[in-house]
Amino acid sequence: LERYNPREMEPHWQKVWDDQQSFVVKDGDTRERYYVLEMFPYPSGRIHMGHVRNYALGDVVARYQRARGKNVLHPMGWDAFGLPAENAAIERGMNPGIWTRQNIEAMRAQLKSMGLSLDWTREVATCEPDYYRHQQAMFLDMLEAGLVTRKQSKVNWDPVDMTVLANEQVIDGKGWRSGAPVEQRELTQWFFRISDFAEELLSAIDGLTEWPEKVRTMQRNWIGKSEGLKLLFALEATEKTATTSIEVFTTRPDTIFGASFIALSPDHPLTGELAAGDPALAEFVAECHRHGTATETLEKAEKQGYFTGLSVAHPVKPGQTLPVYVANFVLMDYGTGAIFGSAGHDQRDLEFARKYGLPVIPVVLPPGADPQTFTIGEEAYTDTGTIFNSAFLDGLSIEEAKKTIADHFASLRVDGRPQGTVEVNYRLRDWGVSRQRYWGCPIPVIHCEACGTVPVPKKDLPVVLPDDVAFDKPGNPLDHHPTWKHVDCPQCGRPARRETDTMDTFVDSSWYFVRFTAPHADTPTVPEETNAWMPVDQYIGGVEHAILHLLYSRFFTRAMKITGHLGLDEPFKGMFTQGMVTHETYKAGDGRWLSPEEVRVELVEGERQAIEVATGRPAQIGSIEKISKSKRNGIDPDEILKTYGADTARWFMLSDSPPERDVQWTEAGVEGASRFQQRIWRLVGESVAIAEQFSEIEAGVDDEDALALRKIVHRAVKQVGDDIEGLRFNRAVAQIYELANALARYVGLVSPAPAARCAALAEGVERLVQLIAPMMPHLAETCWQTLGKQGLVCDAAWPAVDPAYLVDDTVTLPVQVNGKRRAEITVAKGSAQTAVEELVLSLEPIARMLEGKAPKKIVVVPDRIVNVVV
Ligand code: ANZ
Ligand code: ZN
């Protein structure tokens, strides 16, 4: 038998699937629908190993659900707008559109060579006017529905890239690409009002039962609900301002007796007022603005304060006052933009107090601690305990104290208002979608001096990005374009200016999964079609998208519902986040990182030793790391696909570790997968050869070995199905390995053999081929054909399981002839009557007694006894 040749067979089957449109959703298919989706890729130019893993996982689900008789939607597209295309344009002088479309071509070919069961007729690319015109239409609908606002806001400004950065793009206070220190600027921007949905997005998480708990927690934390108190502090009389009180937001009013200062945000109105008459304060504020707005940045930055000279009355210690500072760690857009500091029980407050010599008064006593001796050292005490040093709160728990103090302040008045009011706050901010960039979806509005902001009439959509743009100047090429932004106002007809901001690419990816349900429609969705497919039954992707992409998609789905495009709230029923692909790292003696191709790993006295191929010198084998450019430990999927074929790569991705964990790519692992592929091929060849010795395989009666094999086979079918449904692909793979082993052992046993044995083998091999089909689809098709089966295995129904074979125990039945015990048989518990009868008649002692005659009667008491009457 010849070796299996994936290089020949994989393109062959890919063409067959293509020609037969095997994975195209058919009109009028009324079977139960199943929508499986993997996160669509950014067309960077080449697929990476993370894609291989993601798409291998999704394809198993898709092919399995097809085999289960579902009408499966499994589409693919391109998240095609974004900064890298623009940077490539700048570096190579190439239009971002050309660069992107070339990359899509190349990557589509790569994905096709993976043999994924995708419906390519539904492909969408977010950079095509055919896609983004619908996004523009929905933007207008959202604008009308009050889901969009335009407001001044502070942004992270990258002075080198000349763009606004999302908080996630600010790393250690620097732009993620330029590395330049980020500044703060005020700009008028477009926002989606996601914060109005904070409570709804939070409470609906409870219903997402098919999501990983980890992701649900990340979503909850991001929304960041906190319940606390708004508290008014009366200012001591001063010349510096007419303001008479400061309002703070606190989640820990129970620590009020430990208060030692008030701090205002640098952007607080009162700060601004004071700074106008205090140049040193103005300079302090300016210094604060030289840092990014990212919370992370602020948290890491050293705590800085400026004493305003003002003070407030201590609200629970008559006659005492608290100094008012401006502090860099107080954000204007959270709570009220002002806090009271309780240094004993908040780390930031503690650092601040220590730095400015303010008192540290502990008011929460840890369980079992001695109130006489308990002090705060380097760390604030933030755990549970009993309130002390707090007059009427003494002895209460934190929760009790919170209630008591809330009631206390509710009944007092400052400036004619209740001094304390209960308040819920969310960390979730409105979603700023404006980007001062070319390669994105144009925001469809026009600014007119007379009419203000005017929506582009829907009949004028799409607002198409111009192709002829220049990147010779920093900033947004749409701004510098000679004609594009100059238009007439749709309302008054006077010369007006197009909005040159484009949308955040997270908008594009917030509804692509919806578009796949009606990718060619003239409207964003076709409600009957869309609602029939949605929600996505199983979504699979990287955990790096577990927060923003999913949250924005959940919001956008709601926005689409409100604007009449969709009939549901939650877009993803099942969510799965896969682990990363890792690889060993290698370093040359001089510290250079070496790529896996540049080293050869040998066994030297039982130890693995890397040798740099070019120099022949030993290299160091480093730690196992996520594949990255900087460590040069990348593996090019193209090389793997060429060398081993798609099935091997897919098999290895599925086999090695649970899909939610990281998988380490190793040569040895891939080699093993490749050997297994050949083993299956040999097994199929052997079983065909054995079958050929019998012109016709009749069912016959299984003997003990055949029965044992049937059990293994049916159990494997059951468990592989269960494991795939539970997304435990590595366990499914392990089951298949075991099945292959059992079949190989049986081949040794069976030849030459009675027909029944061959039938058991034939069934086993056929099932094996069906079980590997979702994972190694090309090999499976080849085997299917070799076995002489009709049609394609990708169209074959998932094999049925005979529950009789799943019964764990066998039973041994005494066999009587005319009431006298003559023999015994061992059968699976609950075996069918006829199967038992046949088996009994084939027993040697019984056959001898019958002397070729048929018995008068056989009585089978299931699982008990067999009586033959002659
Ligand atoms: C006094 C206090 C004492 C606080 C204590 C904490 C511990 P979460 O849970 O995230 O909502 N805070 C309020 N507004 C702020 C702002 N704009 N910028 C920075 N910090 C702000 O956090 C609420 C707590 O964060 C509030 O409770 C407040 O400090 C601070 F032992 O008030 B706390
Ligand atoms: Zn006008």
TrEMBL record:
GO terms for cellular component: cytosol. One of its GO terms (biological process) is leucyl-tRNA aminoacylation. Its EC number is 6.1.1.4. It is an enzyme of class 6 (ligase). Residues 36-170 form the Methionyl/Leucyl tRNA synthetase domain. It is found in: Cytoplasm. A motif ('HIGH' region) lies at residues 41-51. GO terms for molecular function: aminoacyl-tRNA deacylase activity; ATP binding; leucine-tRNA ligase activity. HAMAP family: Leu_tRNA_synth_B (MF_00049_B). This is Leucine--tRNA ligase.
